[in-house]
Amino acid sequence: MLTTELRELFNQMTIEEKVGQTIQLSADFFSEETEDITGPMNEMAMTEEKKFQVGSVLGVTGAEKTIKLQKEYMEKHRLSIPLLFMADIIHGDHTIFPIPLGLGATWDPELIKETASISAKEAAAQGLHITFSPMVDLVRDPRWGRVLESTGEDKTLNKHYARAFVEGYQGTDLKEDLTKLAACVKHFAGYGAPRGGRDYNSVDLNENTFREHYLPAYQEGIEAGAKLVMTAFNTIDNIPATGNKRLMREILRKEMKFNGVLISDWGAIGELVPHGVAQDNKQAAELALEAGVDIEMMSAAYSEHLVELVKADKNLETLLDETVMNILVLKEELGLFDNPYRGADTETEKTAIFSSENKEVALKAAEKSLVLLENKNALPLKQSEKVVLTGPMKDSHDLLGAWSWKGDKTKTPTLKEAMDHHLGKNTVKVIDETEIFNGAQSFLLAELQEADTVLVALGETSEMSGEATSRTNIQLPKMQIELLKELRKLNKKVVAVLFNGRPLDLSEVTPLVDGLVEAWFPGSKGAEAIVNVLYGVINPSGRLSMTFPRSVGQIPIFYNQDNTGRPSEQGGPADKYLSKYLDSENTPLYPFGYGLSYTTFEYTELTLSKTEITSADSIEASVVVHNTGVSAGTETVQLYIRDKVGEVVRPVKELHDFKQINLQPGERRTVNFTLSEEQLRYTHADHTVKSDPGEFLLGIGADSTIELTHSFNLIN
Known about the structure:
Strand order of the largest sheet: 9-6-5-4-3-2-1-10
Structural class: alpha/beta
Largest sheet: 8 strands, parallel
Radius of gyration: 27 Å
Number of strands: 26
Helix content: 25-40%
Strand content: 15-25%
C-alpha cells in the first residue's frame, strides 16, 4: 500500500520515469570499462539517460561499489528514487553451504533457515537488497541440471524448506533489520517439470497434478511473506509463463494472494518472440504487462516499447501504474527512501563475510547433508588404517557448486588437504588415478597392496550440473567406473565419495564399492565434513530428498506415484500383464527418504489413538524407535499416508510429517504425531481442496519403503 509520501512521489513521475522503474540491467551496464558496456548498451537500446532511470540492477556487489553507484544514480535521477540491488545468493554468499539439493537431504528446516540468515547477513553488508532465492520448484527428473537448486521431489518437504528460506532471508522486519534481504520465490510455475529433463523446455502438467504437487511450495513461500516472485522460462498450458495472464493474475495474484513484485527471469519477456506467442518485442512487452510482470530482467521489450504502448492505451497505462506502485512499495518496505545505502558498510563487510562463526554453520550443514548410501562394514574408517586416496576429485577445490559465484575456491580445502589436517600431513598416500591403469609400475601396486582401504573421490565437476546442463546419461564418466573395476581386483576395501549436483544412476557403482558416501557439492567446509563422517567423528544422518533411479529408463521416478489398474505388486514374477519393465525392477536404487547410519534403528509398536476420525477432531499416531547399535545417532522418523479410495486416483503414499530424534545406544523413545482431517485434503476434479470419507493407511518408518502400517477411517 502506498503511503502519502509515496503517492506524492508517484504523482510527480513521468511515463518515462515510470517505465524506467520496470527495467533491470546487469552490472555490465555500470562498469567503468567503456568497452564492457558498449555491446549490452546497443543490444538493449539503452542510453545514458535511460540507464539512470532504471529501477534495479543485477549482480553489483561489494559495499564500496553499491554505495558509489547508489550515490551517483540518485544524483542523476530527477526524483532521487533509489536503486534496488539484486543478485543470485542461492546457497551462500561468500560462505558457501551445500547446494540446495544437499540442504534438502538434511531434513532440517531450522538449519536451512540459519544458512539463509547467514547468506542474507553477508550479502546485505555488501549492499544487496534482494536474493533470487529460494527456488521451490518440485523436481522428478534428474536429467535436468537445475535439480541442484531444488530441495527435492516432495511437496511437504519443499513447503517446509520454502518457508525456512524465506524466513531466514527476510526475518521479521526488513525495514529495520539491515542484515536481511527480500526473498524471491522462483520459478513460477512448474519449471521443475521440463519435458525430457531438458532445460528451458515446455512443461506438460495436467491441472490436477499442477495444483496438487507443484503449487504448494510456492504458496508456502508466499504465505511466509516473500516479497518477490520470479516467472519461469517454460510454458504452462502451452503459454509461456512470462506472458501467461491466467497464471499470473488469476492464480498467483487472486488465488494465492500474492501482492508483491513479479519479476521476469533473465530475458524471458524477449523470449516470448521465439516461443511464438509474440511477433516482436513490442507485442512481448504488451503480453508481459497484461500478465502482470512488474520488472523486466535483461531484455529490451519494456525499455524499447512500453512508453509508446501506454501512451496509446489507457488500460495499459493503468497496468503500468499498478506495476510501478508495486516496485515503490517494495523499496519503501526495504527502507530505501529513508536509507538508500541500507546495510552497505565497508567495515561491517569485513567482519560479516566468511567469519569463523559462519564457517561453523557451513560445516554443520555439510555434515548433515551427507548421505551414507552403502556400508558393507567399511565405515567408519579407523585412525590406524592405511588409506590410499585416489580419484579425479581427490585434490579438487571444485566443491562449491554451480551457483557459488562469490565463493572462493582457493579458500576451499580439498579432500586431500582435509585428510592431512585430520590425520597429520602426508599420512594418507595419494595415487593419481591415471597411474592405476598402468599396472606395470610395481611401486604403485605395492602401495595399493599395503593399503587397508582405497578411498576414491568421484563425481561431476560443477560445470556438469546447474543451469543449462541437462544430460541424457546420468552415470559417472566411463573412466571413473573403469577405475572402480580396477580397484575391485585388488581385494581391498573400496570406499567412494561422490561429488555431484543431481541423483545419479549408480547401478554399476554399487556392486564395486564397500562404502558409498553422497557428498553433493558440499560447500566451503565440505571436505572437513566428509572426513568427519568417514572417520566417525560425525555419524551420518542425511536422507535423500530425491529418488535415485536404477537407470535413466525409469525416469521420471518418484516415491509418491499414482497406482495403476495393474500394479506390479499384485502378481508374481511370472505375471506378464502388469505395470512393470521387462528388463528392470520398478523400484529405485535408493528411495526417497533413504540414508544409512553407523548405528541401527528398530521401529516397533505403531499405535493409533483411535481408528476413526472426523473433521472436528484429530488422531494421535505413535511409534517406538530403538537405537539397537553401538553408537549415538540421529534418526529421521517419517510418517506417510495413503488414501485408499478417492474421487481421483491417489498416490500410493505421501509424506505428511517427519521428526528428527537423537538416540544414545540402547535408548528407546516414543515418537508422536498428530494428524487432522485438514491434512487428508487433496485437489479434486473440480480443483476444490477437500477430503473424502473412507479408509486411510498410515505408515511410519525410516524412509519411503515403510513396513509398519495401520489403517483408520475418516467419517462424516
